[in-house]
Design brief:
Blueprint (H helix, E strand, L loop, with lengths): L2 E5 L4 H12 L3 E5 L14 E4 L10 E4 L3 H8 L7 E5 L3 H4 L6 H24 L2 E7 L2 E2 L7 H11 L1 E5 L5 E2 L2 E2 H13 L5 E6 L5 E2 H9 L7 E5 L1 H11 L11 H5 L36 H4 L5
Parallel strand pairs: 1-2, 1-4, 2-3, 4-5, 5-6, 6-11, 7-10, 8-13
Antiparallel strand pairs: 9-12
Length: 296
């Protein structure tokens, strides 16, 4: 039995993962709220299901979306042997955030991690917990892609004059390969792996490279941290700025870098350096059929 359930199948990691699993011979049940009435997927190895549907018996579960959804599938009886879950390094860096909503979000993610771990321990299921840094790759993230959208709309990207904190952006395609490798490798009963990108660079340099990927000229607008934080607070009250907060400005001066440790020697983690191009902010044409289930 080589069946795998993929939650968050239409996320940017999921989009890169589905064709990899198909090519590797897995029978994939791709979970999406937009799953078509006809369960057939874009290839012979993919079948779309909705979150409320019951998945067929599966040997593996890969979570590329909310951990709560992965928990719902794992709580159902079945012969699952291994679970690969994408969480976030934010669990490690935002616990002391001054923003109440941010802290609540992180606490909820950490609680889901604990529940997943408890279920796997109780049932003897191998658990792989992957914590990426800033994920980019096809324009669906709300970090570097959001910066580029802001820049293309106004012609500039505001950045703190103290934006010297280090970052390690990681490409979704590299993470998809990592998940596929973890399915086939001996990862032990529990693996907690922080998955940074292949290069550490300052927040400012990261934004400069993002700005060069715009379809129109985009420049950086350096602002004092206090002024930028006040503007961010105002922007958070509008639709496009929903979810941003002044803590994001404060963190621009902090180093948020990680060492990739604990990975078994059978898995080669060699992520690309951060050299984004315009194509990294748009869904590749060959993956469009996975983004729109049931489309030709």
């Amino acid at each position: 039995m080589n069946e795998v359930v993929v939650t968050g199948a239409r996320s940017q990691i999921g989009l890169f993962l589905l064709p990899r699993l198909e090519r590797a011979g897995y029978s994939v049940q791709a979970v999406s709220r937009a799953a078509p009435p006809d369960p057939e997927g874009p290839g012979e190895g993919v079948r779309w299901i909705r979150p409320e549907d019951g998945a067929d018996q599966a040997r593996f579960l890969v979570s590329c979306g909310p951990l709560g959804l992965a928990r719902r599938f794992l709580e159902r009886p079945g012969p699952v042997e291994k679970v690969v879950v994408f969480s976030t390094t934010s669990v490690l860096t935002k616990r002391a955030s001054r923003d109440r909503r941010e802290r609540a979000q992180i606490e909820a993610i950490a609680a889901d991690e604990r529940v997943l771990n408890d279920i796997c321990l109780e049932r003897g299921i191998d658990l792989v917990l992957l914590r990426p840094t800033l994920v980019y790759g096809c324009g669906l993230d709300r970090n570097v892609s959001l910066l580029l959208k802001l820049g293309e709309r106004g012609g500039f990207i505001p950045v703190s004059t103290r934006a010297d904190g280090l970052r390690q952006p990681v490409h979704a395609e590299d993470l998809a390969q990592l998940a596929a490798d973890c399915l086939s490798a001996d990862t032990g009963r529990f693996l907690d792996f922080t998955a940074p990108g292949g290069e550490a660079l300052s927040y400012r340099e990261m934004v400069e490279r993002v700005a060069r990927c715009g379809r129109r000229p985009v420049r950086l607008l350096p602002l004092p941290p206090a002024l930028l934080a006040a503007l961010v607070r105002l922007a958070s009250l509008t639709g496009p700025g929903k979810g941003v907060n002044p803590e994001m400005v404060r963190r621009q001066s902090l180093d948020l870098v990680f060492e990739p440790t604990n990975l078994p020697p059978t898995i080669d983690w060699n992520p690309r350096p951060f050299r984004p191009v315009t194509a990294d902010f748009h869904i590749p044409p060959e993956l469009e059929r996975y983004r729109e289930p049931g489309s030709e």
